[in-house]
Write a structure and sequence with these properties.
The protein is mostly beta strands. It is built from 2 helices and 9 strands; from the N terminus they run ββββαβαββββ. The protein has one domain.
């Protein structure tokens, strides 16, 4: 059996979902890796409101997710400081001392928009 390398992330809002092809986004190079901004991933989904009006959960290949650890999603305003690595789909964040280490989720397959209310 061969492992299939994913180049996309499924983005969901309510019952709607769309697949975003990460390598097609504008990428930047950070520490030798190509990464795309998380707010660009959300914008590319064309699913709805601005990111700062929502919160987000991220789900890894193994089923691990942010909400399970934090009890709440990541505020949408934080997406502008986060990136997804094109080759690994790992989340990378601009360093901030108070940011939890579990935000650096590996092999993300799904980004879920949650109501911020």
């Amino acid at each position: 059996m061969h492992a299939v390398r994913r180049w996309w992330i499924d983005v969901a809002l309510g019952d709607r979902s769309v697949r975003v092809d990460v390598p097609r986004l504008v990428c930047v190079r950070v520490h030798g890796r190509d990464v795309a901004r998380l707010d660009d991933v959300w914008a590319a989904s064309h699913l709805g409101p601005r990111a700062d009006q929502l919160s987000f959960d991220f789900v890894a290949e193994d089923g691990c997710c942010i909400v399970a650890k934090a009890g709440a999603g990541i505020p949408g305003r934080e997406l502008r400081t986060g990136y997804v690595c094109v080759s690994t789909r790992d989340l990378v964040w601009q360093p901030v001392p108070e940011r939890p280490c579990y935000w650096r989720l590996k092999s993300v397959v799904r980004m879920v928009a949650l109501s911020s209310r």
